[in-house]
Structures are given as C-alpha cells and as structure tokens.
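job 3f2a | input accepted
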Amino acid sequence: MTIRIKKGQTGKSILNTVIEMSGVDLSLCYQCKKCSCGCTVSNHAKSPPSEIIRRLQLGAGNELLDNDLIWSCVSCETCYARCPMGIDMVSVMDALRRMAIERKAAIPEGNVPLFNSAFLKTVKFFGRTYDLGLMAIYKIGTSSYVQDADKLPLIFMKKKIAILPSWSANRKTVKRIFKKASHGK
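job 3f2a | predicted structure (185 res):
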C-alpha cells in the first residue's frame, strides 16, 4: 500500500479534530489490518479502514475528506469487533463525515449523503426509522418519483414495511441525543 501525503500540508488539525470529535485514540492502532479484513465495503472503496487510520497518523490533510470510504461505511461495527485495540472506527468515520460536510469537501458519486441525511431525519422525528418516510424523502431528493414504484405493492403485501410509522416510546431521549450531538459540532 502506497500512501501519498501532499507535501507541505500538516494534517495535525484533522487528526486532532477527529480525536476530539470521536474520542478515539488513533495512536493505539498498530496496523494489524483486522478492521480492513472484516470490512463489508472495503472491496468497493479506494481505501480500507486501516489505511484511513494510517493516513491520519501520517498527517493527511483535507484530501482525506474526499475518500469514498467515509461515505460508503455502513457502520456495521465489524471493524470495532475485530480490533484488538478496541478502536471505534465507526466514530472516526462519523467524525470524518461531519468534517467533510463542514469543510464542503467533494461530494461523492451517488446519493449516499442524501440517504444518510434522510435516514437521520426520520430517526430524529419518529424516534426510530420510518421506512416509507425515508423512501419519500430520498425519492424527493433524487427526483426519481416513479422509479421502483412498481415494487411498492409487493412490499406492502408481504408486510416488509409499514404504511404508518411506529413511534418510539423514547422519542424524548432520541431528540435529546440529536440536540446534544448538534451542540458537539
């Protein structure tokens, strides 16, 4: 693996910001690459999780925020479960996503950021995800109103998604979490 860091840049501010936002000590990583071996999307991304950590350790700058793994990470926590040092890579990816949005980094191909935003909006409002609402927000955002509409009757018939949302009993707790997370930015 060849890692290129742009000359003249010091990414200490990115490293320090990621550590501060995620609460993860990245100096513990000794590059065993167990996170990358278990990652469900690393085969489809340009860089595996271990490379992201190594780039941060080496002082990568804003070019790291353009990495496609930041947006394709599905937060399955397989990397965390496999890591012998207990590095919470999901928190690191969340921090990198927030930084990419704040610094207006290059938008990745596809609609992953839109899907991420739509998902979080439904969780924030209902206290849990609401699939039909998520689909509606996503379809409006992509302007693909009738694409895949022929599948909806079958999905409803097989009761794969509910027409009406189920409200979480802990909506207040979820709203408090979102409020606290927005102040932490």
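job 3f2a | The longest helix spans residues 112-126.
job 3f2a | closed
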